[in-house]
Amino acid sequence: MSFFKRIFSSDKKDESLNEQEKQSLDKGLEKSKTTFFSKLSKAVAGKSKVDDEVLDNLEDILISSDVGVNTTLKIIQRIEVRVASDKYLGVGELNQILREEIASLLSETNSGEATEFVTPVQTKPYVLMVVGVNGVGKTTTIGKLAYQFKKAGHKVVLGAADTFRAAAIDQLQIWADRVGVPIVRQNMGSDPASVAFDTLQSAVAQDADIVIIDTAGRLHNKVNLMNELTKVKRVMQKVVRDAPHDVLLVLDGSTGQNAFEQAKQFTAATEVTSLAVTKLDGTAKGGVVIGISDQFQIPVKYIGVGEGIEDLQVFNKLEFVDSFFK
């Protein structure tokens, strides 16, 4: 029995998600898995074993589920190896094989990921810079992160360095008030680096544990984006030497392949160290998590599975695959 079979067949549940979180994850992935398995059922109808036709159909299904072409080919190749070693592999086993191979693929990128909202280093304050285009749920993600970190016992300070839009500053203020954490802000049009500098100074003075810095959400050309983010980093390092400790790119899972393009743009402009994939509850494109994680070799750290303040979860690859294939 393979490593992943032992995990998924075990009676003992992974304790990283409580029952409420598990239900939220199941509900959030409902559209994606219903669509996927409806297509899979049609692909294997009348078939008794996994043959070339079944694999061709499976390839189409994975690509249409926004897993991405390159990642789909990896998965198909892995399955082909298993089919070659067992000429009589039945279609009834395809579900389990897919489950194992996708979990294996995710584990190669998301090894050692956190299972709860804690800072991975002892640095204080821990500086998290958040990037992403407008409309992906960036401000909401920051607010939910602040809530979760505060709930975990951390002292949090927010920095409204997206000064390009007045609405961005106001939205972050609403989240700061809702969660009950301090925010550092300036007027629209202010220098984002200046806001970041003031935020870190304030955080140090308050002995804060975590600083979350919002940044401009417009995809202007790569050179301007790179220059702006580089300047923000450089100025923050005058206060906290190795800031930022994490650059989190927020992507909208419901946009499918467009999320891949956004990831390309931002990874070309700055060093992205982790990902948050939002709005998975409103889409059948949940496969995008698998593809983005694999193609960019950047760990998915958080996923959004609902609109509630509790519906931002630390991404757990085994729980994700378990829920998807339930």
TrEMBL record:
Gene3D superfamilies: P-loop containing nucleotide triphosphate hydrolases, Signal recognition particle SRP54, nucleotide-binding domain
Compositional bias (Basic and acidic residues): 8-24
Membrane topology summary: Peripheral membrane protein
Enzyme category, top tier: hydrolase
Keywords from the named record: Cell membrane, Cytoplasm, GTP-binding, Hydrolase, Membrane, Nucleotide-binding, Receptor
InterPro entries listed in its UniProt record: AAA+_ATPase, P-loop_NTPase, Signal_recog_particl_SRP54_hlx, SR_rcpt_FtsY, SRP/SRP_N, SRP54_GTPase_dom, SRP54_N_sf
UniProt entry tagged with the keyword GTP-binding: yes
One Pfam family matching this protein: SRP54_N
Reaction(s) this enzyme catalyzes, per UniProt: GTP + H2O = GDP + phosphate + H(+)
Residues where GTP binds: 132-139, 214-218, 278-281
Assembly: Part of the signal recognition particle protein translocation system, which is composed of SRP and FtsY.
Chain's role: Involved in targeting and insertion of nascent membrane proteins into the cytoplasmic membrane. Acts as a receptor for the complex formed by the signal recognition particle (SRP) and the ribosome-nascent chain (RNC).
Name listed for the protein in its UniProt record: Signal recognition particle receptor FtsY
